[in-house]
Amino acid sequence: MVAGRQPQTRIQKKNTETILEAALDVFSQNGFRGSTLDQIAKAAGLSKPNLLYYFPSKVAIHRSLIDTLLKTWLDPLKKMQDDGDPVEEILGYVWRKLDMAREYPRESRLFANEIVQGAPNIMDKIEGELATLVNEKAETIRGWIAEGKLAPVDPYHLIFSIWANTQHYADFDAQVRAILKPEGDTHFDDAHAYLDTMYRKLLTP
């Protein structure tokens, strides 16, 4: 909603949520460049002028989604505790990321589409909040390695591999389901068992 307006009424809040929910569908399917305000308005069941009352542009809608998504994205890594058991702390991060792939597939694809396009709308956040947090956790992992609590690994590539091995199940959902033909989401349980074995063997000194 445009800055400076009064707090939203219940109806206005509902319409804002409806627009963001519709935009999430549209952006996650088509990417930022392939999406239009007309598509979002249609998906939301609103006229384009009505949509523009709440958000002045496609960029504003996308930015609102990304701001919320980035917080969701950072939380699992923030929960990695410096004073916990290193292997279990890293595995806990793996499970939280895998749970996100199961519970927030559209958000994952939204983020992936943005990155593939060069992150034009969120590069400041990637170079800022995300990079800062990753650097902090990389130092924690280096400390665990120096203390002999973890097998030697490159902390950055470890984190990148966790992203790749968990987000794959959201970003390439159609491919995974076409090959495995799972009943519901049972393949996430199989992925959990596989990733537990892989990372536990990799990380245990």
User: Into which percentage range does the β-strand content fall?
Assistant: under 5%
First CA to last CA: what distance?
A: 52 Å
| CATH fold annotation of the largest domain | Tetracycline Repressor, domain 2
* Biggest sheet layout: none
The coarse silhouette is: globular
Question: Which CATH C-level class of the largest domain is it?
Answer: Mainly Alpha
Number of helices: 10
| Spans of at least 5 consecutive residues with low confidence | none
Helix share bin = over 70%
CATH architecture descriptor of the largest domain: Orthogonal Bundle
Total number of distinct structural domains: 2
What is the mean pLDDT? 92
Number of strands: 0
Structural class: mainly alpha
Order of helices and strands: HHHHHHHHHH
Can you describe this structure?
With 205 residues, this protein is mostly helical. It folds into two domains: 10-56, Arc Repressor Mutant, subunit A; 66-203, Tetracycline Repressor, domain 2 (Orthogonal Bundle), CATH 1.10.357. The chain is 75% helix and 0% strand. The chain contains ten helices and no strands. The protein has helices at 10-30, 37-44, 48-54, 58-78, 86-103, 105-116, 123-146, 155-171, 173-180, 186-203. The radius of gyration is 20 Å and the shape is globular.
